[in-house]
Specification:
Number of strands: 8
Largest sheet: 8 strands, mixed
CATH class: Alpha Beta
Strand order of the largest sheet: 2-3-4-1-5-8-7-6
Number of domains: 1
Helix content: 10-25%
Number of helices: 2
Radius of gyration: 15 Å
CATH topology: 2,3-Dihydroxybiphenyl 1,2-Dioxygenase, domain 1
Order of helices and strands: EHEEEEHEEE
Shape: globular
Structural class: alpha+beta
């Protein structure tokens, strides 16, 4: 399977506002979505620019080992073909689902159980 490279790392967080302030104010990353809020505590999904890869903060983390670990997301041009190639190669991967408008993805785990996704943006 050919990917478009690492496009996203998802970090599950408990305190969204504190995490946004840390990555934005302390580490200097620019918030790409949603922009210019004074309080991010009610947000479920916040993305920050890191160059070629996006850091996505996902609310609801509960410190569950293997569940709330960072997830890498690899971009693909054709998700159905990429998923089929992974299945044929013995990789266990879930069904394709729409995560957001224009975003199709499916989730899998590496040999040590770390989560990853492949994603196609339409």
């Amino acid at each position: 399977m050919k990917t478009l490279g690492l496009i996203e790392v998802i970090l599950y967080v408990q305190d969204m506002d504190a995490q946004v302030r840390f990555y934005r104010d302390r580490l200097g990353l620019n918030v790409s979505y949603p922009q210019e809020l004074s309080d991010y505590s009610q947000e479920f999904w916040v993305t920050l620019e890191t160059g070629a890869c996006t850091l996505a903060l996902h609310a609801g983390g509960k410190h569950r080992l293997g569940e709330d670990t960072p997830k890498i997301v690899l971009g693909v041009e054709e998700i159905e073909t990429a998923r089929q190639e992974l299945l044929e190669g013995g990789v266990k991967i879930g069904e394709i689902r729409q995560a957001a408008p224009g975003v199709l993805l499916c989730d899998g785990r590496d040999p040590e159980g770390n989560p990853f996704s492949i994603e196609m943006r339409t």
